[in-house]
Write a structure and sequence with these properties.
- The chain is of the alpha+beta class.
- The chain has one helix at about 1-20; strands spanning about 30, 40-45, 65-75, 80-85, 85-90, 95-100, 105-110, 120, 125.
- It has a domain at about 25-105: SH3 Domains (SH3 type barrels), CATH 2.30.30.
- The chain is built from one helix and nine strands; from the N terminus they run H-E-E-E-E-E-E-E-E-E.
- Strand 3 (about 65-75) and strand 4 form a beta hairpin.
- The protein is globular and about 30 Å long.
- Keywords: Coiled coil, Endoplasmic reticulum, Glycoprotein, SH3 domain, Signal.
């Protein structure tokens, strides 16, 4: 009986730590094409396959086109956010090459907690 209880506690701890990790703030600042981060900043092409560590990340294959909407700044400048079809998420900037710049000037804004939640089927997933 105590072994089953120990296993359940272990699963609860693992589940909680995964939840905390998936809502972790990756940066307090980001750069966008406008204050609302609605304008696409650039069009990029994947130079390598990428599989992200969790549901907040955009997975892609080399050669696929991605529209970039924001770039994390200050604390974590390596991560950009963008979309490929209906998929949206973070990816490392060194996994892509810029094909076309669509904005003239970047605007730096504070991130929001919702920037770091998983988005599934147009709904935020609160883990």
């Amino acid at each position: 009986m105590s072994r089953i209880l120990d296993q359940r506690i272990l699963l609860l701890v693992i589940s909680f730590s995964a939840s905390v990790q998936s809502t972790k703030v990756l940066s307090e600042w980001k750069k966008c094409g406008d204050p609302e981060c609605e304008k696409a900043m650039s069009r990029v092409q994947a130079t390598t396959d990428y599989l992200g560590p969790d549901c907040r990340y955009l997975n892609f294959k080399a050669g696929e086109e991605i529209m970039v909407y924001s770039k994390l700044s200050r604390k974590n400048e390596n991560l950009w956010t963008g979309s490929k079809g209906k998929d949206f998420g973070y990816f490392p900037r060194d996994a892509v090459k810029v094909e076309e710049v669509l904005i003239g000037e970047e605007v730096e804004v504070l991130t929001k907690e919702t920037d770091f939640l998983c988005l599934h089927e147009d709904k935020y997933v609160f883990e």
